[in-house]
Amino acid sequence: MIKRIAAITFIFLCTAFAWGILGATIFQRTYDSGSASDSRVVSTWGSPQTQSPPQASFDEQVPNKEEKTENGKKIVTVTQETVTRWLPPESSHINVDLNLEHRQKGLLWYNTYKVAFGGAYSFRNPSDKDQNVIFKLDFPTAQAIYDDLVFTVNDLPVALTNAKNNASGTVRMKAGGVATLKVGYKSQGLNDWRYNFGRPTDANGSDVAQVRDFSLRMTTNFKDVDFPDNTLSPTEKHETANGWDLDWKFTNLVSGYQIAMTMPEHLQPGPLAGRISFFAPVSLFFFFFLMLIITTMRGIELHPMNYFFLAAAFFSFHLLLAYLVDHVSIHLAFGVCSAVSVFLVVSYLRLVVGTRFAVREAALAQFIYLVVFSYAFFLKGFTGLAITVGSIITLFVVMQATGKIRWRERFSAPAPMEQLAPPTPVPSVTGA
Question: Of all helices (H) and strands (E), which one includes residue 236?
Answer without folding.
Answer: strand 236-239
